[in-house]
């Protein structure tokens, strides 16, 4: 029995999204400057890739994060990420591309259609959420910078700025900074692979990886590198942070797979955050590729996913 | 027993210690009904109960060194501290079995045999069972004082198991579990050094 004295729903959750987005458009139009800094509204078109599962509340998505640059506790990012300067933001694109360079994020976003993609997110620790991202396919960006024919992988790096990222300046080094991640080029070009710029119709909160983060919905959450400052195309499989830290626990692929346990967490089931059951919320079975097998299983045809975990 | 060097000998009865030990548990009961335990309430409770168990176990382990080194005589409260620690161990285990795993016994058994940090945590719990079961005066007479003392040395591996369990369950090397482990190692090391 779970009693609550206050309603859990915010106004955002009971107001149809189109309606409040509309209202914000009007506000932005009339007095745009007044909204600056407070999570600016982002227009987005709906995507056929969205799940119709109920999204996790904005409060849970923004208060329960792994973002070790701001501390190892899941409440640390919400507490500490506010200091991060996300504007201006540059992304270096280099390696095996026809158009390398250091791009201003605003320029990268020009001409991109921002979509709303409601994706399931599965953390390697055995919990999950449903998150309404705003963003655009990574493929759109990669095509624009023209990958060379020999490119096979995409490597990513997160910002290193200890003055604003408290977890990077701690006495103990939690991870080797910068945080690095990578995808095979065909994974990166899959239409599901998203570069997210927003959440719930607004610009991305810092703790969720502002201003630009990767979302690969069929892989464990840690593959979704946050606050990206560098994207490199290479012909070699890039090193990845958690694989460097504990190779027996975190592989390069990290596809959601209920059949392959992590040494410390069974992956057979997951707890959906904010499931409604509160304290007694039941675990639910985890789906192969987090339920996206139809779209991505072919990428791994013939591979032993116990070996390439 | 160096009773003579006790400089501080509190006259306080032990019941307030039991009450004080219940405060964290009552706080979480309040949180369950009126508060916000965050996005993953079962995990929050599980971690909180485990951490309080470790804190009280450490407190119990500190009583003898405090007496020998600083003359602070808290011996009469050690049983209370130990039983409160055991209460939090039981709560921690209950939250894991009931709220985390939903009494899915095959999954729980798989956890115990396949995941070393759960094996070690469970071993710590089992080591504490005979201690809790013999924590009343009649049991001391029944077992015999010397045997009782020997039996209760099981708390040393049990606390160590608890601290190691915590270090092993976190990703990377955050500070907090390492601090607990360092305190436990120091308190056990003191015993080796003093050969008690």
UniProtKB/TrEMBL annotation, chain A:
Record-level Gene Ontology MF annotations = metal ion binding; molybdopterin cofactor binding; oxidoreductase activity, acting on a sulfur group of donors, quinone or similar compound as acceptor
Entry annotated with the keyword Oxidoreductase: yes
UniProt superkingdom: Bacteria
User: What reaction does this enzyme carry out catalytically?
Assistant: L-methionyl-[protein] + a quinone + H2O = L-methionyl-(S)-S-oxide-[protein] + a quinol; L-methionyl-[protein] + a quinone + H2O = L-methionyl-(R)-S-oxide-[protein] + a quinol
Q: Does the keyword Mitochondrion apply?
A: no
- Give the top-level enzyme category: oxidoreductase
Q: Which residues bind Mo-molybdopterin?
A: 65, 68-69, 123, 158, 208, 213, 224-226
**Cofactor(s) for this UniProt protein:** Mo-molybdopterin
Q: What is its EC number?
A: 1.8.5.-
List the keywords (alphabetical).
Answer: Metal-binding, Molybdenum, Oxidoreductase, Signal
Gene Ontology terms describing biological process: protein repair
Q: Which InterPro entries match?
A: MsrP, OxRdtase_Mopterin-bd_dom, OxRdtase_Mopterin-bd_sf
Cofactor binding description: Binds 1 Mo-molybdopterin (Mo-MPT) cofactor per subunit.
Free-text function comment from the UniProt entry: Part of the MsrPQ system that repairs oxidized periplasmic proteins containing methionine sulfoxide residues (Met-O), using respiratory chain electrons. Thus protects these proteins from oxidative-stress damage caused by reactive species of oxygen and chlorine generated by the host defense mechanisms. MsrPQ is essential for the maintenance of envelope integrity under bleach stress, rescuing a wide series of structurally unrelated periplasmic proteins from methionine oxidation.
The annotated subunit structure for this chain is: Heterodimer of a catalytic subunit (MsrP) and a heme-binding subunit (MsrQ).
Family, as annotated: Belongs to the MsrP family.
Protein name in the entry = Protein-methionine-sulfoxide reductase catalytic subunit MsrP
Organism, by scientific name, is Niveispirillum cyanobacteriorum
Q: Which gene encodes it?
A: msrP
TrEMBL record, chain B:
What name goes with this protein? Protein-methionine-sulfoxide reductase heme-binding subunit MsrQ
Complexes and interactors? Heterodimer of a catalytic subunit (MsrP) and a heme-binding subunit (MsrQ).
Q: What's one GO-annotated cellular component?
A: plasma membrane
Membrane topology per the entry is: Multi-pass membrane protein
Predominant location category: membrane
Short name of one Pfam family: Ferric_reduct
Q: Which GO terms describe its molecular function?
A: electron transfer activity; FMN binding; heme binding; metal ion binding; oxidoreductase activity, acting on diphenols and related substances as donors
Question: What does the UniProt cofactor note say?
Answer: Binds 1 FMN per subunit. Binds 1 heme b (iron(II)-protoporphyrin IX) group per subunit.
Q: Which GO terms describe its biological process?
A: protein repair
Q: Which family does the record claim for this protein?
A: Belongs to the MsrQ family.
Q: Which organism's genome codes for this protein? A: Niveispirillum cyanobacteriorum
Cofactor(s) the record lists: FMN; heme b
Q: What does this protein do?
A: Part of the MsrPQ system that repairs oxidized periplasmic proteins containing methionine sulfoxide residues (Met-O), using respiratory chain electrons. Thus protects these proteins from oxidative-stress damage caused by reactive species of oxygen and chlorine generated by the host defense mechanisms. MsrPQ is essential for the maintenance of envelope integrity under bleach stress, rescuing a wide series of structurally unrelated periplasmic proteins from methionine oxidation.
For this protein's source organism, the top of the classification is: Bacteria, Pseudomonadati, Pseudomonadota, Alphaproteobacteria, Rhodospirillales
Tell me where in or outside the cell this protein is found: Cell membrane; Membrane
Looking up InterPro entries in the UniProt record yields: Fe3_Rdtase_TM_dom, MsrQ-like
- Provide this UniProt record's keywords sorted from A to Z: Cell membrane, Electron transport, Flavoprotein, FMN, Heme, Iron, Membrane, Metal-binding, Transmembrane, Transmembrane helix, Transport
Listed transmembrane segments: 12-32, 52-68, 80-99, 119-142, 154-171, 177-193
Question: The organism sits in which domain of life?
Answer: Bacteria
